[in-house]
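Ticket #155: bound-state structure for zinc ion.
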Amino acid sequence: MTNEELMRRAIELSKTSVRNGGGPFGAVIARDGEIIAEGSNKVTIDNDPTAHAEVSTIREACKKLGTFDLSGCVIYTSCEPCPMCFGAIYWAHLEKIYYANDRKDAGKIGFDDDFIYEEIAIQPQYRKKPSEILLRNEAIEAFKMWELKDDKTEY
Ligand SMILES: [Zn+2]
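RESOLUTION: The complex was predicted; output attached.
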């Protein structure tokens, strides 16, 4: 399938999602033009705030391929990924992101993508949601254990 055909499939999934009570977002993960996995936003359907189209599709693709590493695959998403999905795409090692609507379009219909991107750019102490460091000296022990572990699976 061409890039346009794969994106049209993601857009179709976003429309189907609206009809079925989900958010207006769809995504497709493909390798060499072949669809590996499809997904749509299921936040309100599954009561899962992390069930964005991209995250759902990454989970599905990883399950199908039996790996946590989607190197060699690309994602087509009907909207520019929010910071959570953007991070997930990097963690999954997807090669490229194609998106259609952008974060400003999403903001216009009431989604927080752009606001969260703005928050990330601000120093933690000035963000709307406060962050506070607590018990770092105890938590660091797990990092030391990881560093010394010889048989770890790195990702
Ligand atoms: Zn997202």
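RESOLUTION NOTES: The pocket of zinc ion is lined by residues 52, 54, 81-82, 84-85 (CB under 6 Å).
TICKET STATUS: resolved
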